[in-house]
């Protein structure tokens, strides 16, 4: 694991990369430097054939409480446009491998947007989700209005975004934002356990299945079905498809190589 004074801690085990945001003194505020380090690390794991799934966490007390306000408090429109910091979020969206968020404590603003860029969210009972940007004179800018609305529906998203209200872990689960709720002590371990299970599946099929699910938000049903079908057919060019079906017929466990 990286030194404790680092902005980001990483470790790997059983084909899983565990990435921890490490600015506890400012509730893991997502500074430009931290985001750059995070994206660099995740893109590296995405290229690494020994890694099949990533887990992203922030610690027991906070996942991330939002953007670093000091980075933008005095910025002008021109400053924000020239910096174009929000464009870097497209690089997270482009990660091909599954990402599981392990969320304890506050998950707000940019932190909530970061969790929603992940593919599965495991929440501790202590988790609080929200987009409170309205309280500082702005609105979500890294996908909060779009992803939250798709996850929990227009009317609940309106209340959360327009009034800055937090959702408890159970509310987030009931609304469809969270995959499952566990105790704070179990949160990271449960996310890693799930990641290790998923890491046993065929890597190419994992990536294409993720791609197809994400496409469902942006395509009509008919276009999505056609896209899914093409991805399905393409997997018949992989060694893993041959191995998986052969192992099924031979009643043994498949060994997937990612090709």
Folded structure, characterized:
The protein starts with 7 loop residues before the first strand and ends in a 10-residue tail after the last helix. It has helices at about 30-45, 75-85, 90-95, 110-115, 145-150, 155-165, 170-175, 185-200, 205-215, 220-235, 240-250, and strands spanning about 10-15, 15-20, 55, 60-65, 100-105, 105-110, 120-125, 130, 165-170, 180. The protein is about 45% helix and about 15% strand. By secondary structure, it is an alpha/beta fold. It contains eleven helices and ten strands. It has two domains: about 10-200, Alpha-Beta Complex (2-enoyl-CoA Hydratase, Chain A, domain 1); about 205-250, Lyase 2-enoyl-coa Hydratase, Chain  A, domain 2. Strands 1-2-3-5-7-10 form a six-stranded mixed beta sheet, with helices on both faces. Strands 4-6-8-9 form a four-stranded mixed beta sheet. Helix 9 (about 205-215) runs antiparallel to helix 10.
């Amino acid at each position: 694991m990286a030194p404790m004074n680092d902005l980001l801690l990483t470790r790997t085990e059983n084909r899983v990369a565990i990435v921890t945001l490490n600015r506890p003194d400012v509730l893991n505020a997502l500074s430009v430097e931290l985001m750059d380090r995070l994206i660099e690390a995740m893109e590296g794991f995405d290229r690494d054939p020994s890694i099949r799934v990533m887990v992203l966490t922030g610690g027991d007390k906070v996942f991330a409480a939002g953007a670093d306000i000091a980075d933008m408090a005095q910025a002008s429109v021109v400053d924000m446009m020239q910096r174009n910091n929000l464009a870097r979020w497209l690089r997270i969206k482009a990660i091909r491998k599954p990402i599981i968020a392990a969320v304890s404590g506050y998950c707000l603003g940019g932190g909530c947007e970061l969790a929603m860029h992940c593919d599965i969210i495991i929440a501790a009972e202590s988790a609080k989700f929200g987009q409170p940007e309205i309280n500082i004179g702005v609105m979500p800018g890294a996908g909060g209005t779009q992803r939250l609305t798709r996850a929990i529906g227009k009317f609940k998203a309106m209340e959360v975004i327009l009034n800055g209200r937090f959702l408890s872990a159970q509310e987030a689960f009931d609304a469809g934002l969270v995959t499952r709720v566990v105790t704070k002590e179990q949160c990271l371990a449960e996310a890693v356990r799930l990641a290790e299970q998923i890491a046993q599946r065929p890597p190419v099929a994992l990536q294409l299945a993720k791609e197809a699910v994400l496409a469902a938000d942006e395509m009509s049903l008919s276009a999505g079905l056609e896209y899914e079908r093409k991805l399905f057919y393409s997997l018949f060019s992989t060694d893993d498809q041959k191995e998986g079906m052969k192992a099924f017929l031979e009643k043994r466990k498949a060994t997937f190589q990612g090709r």
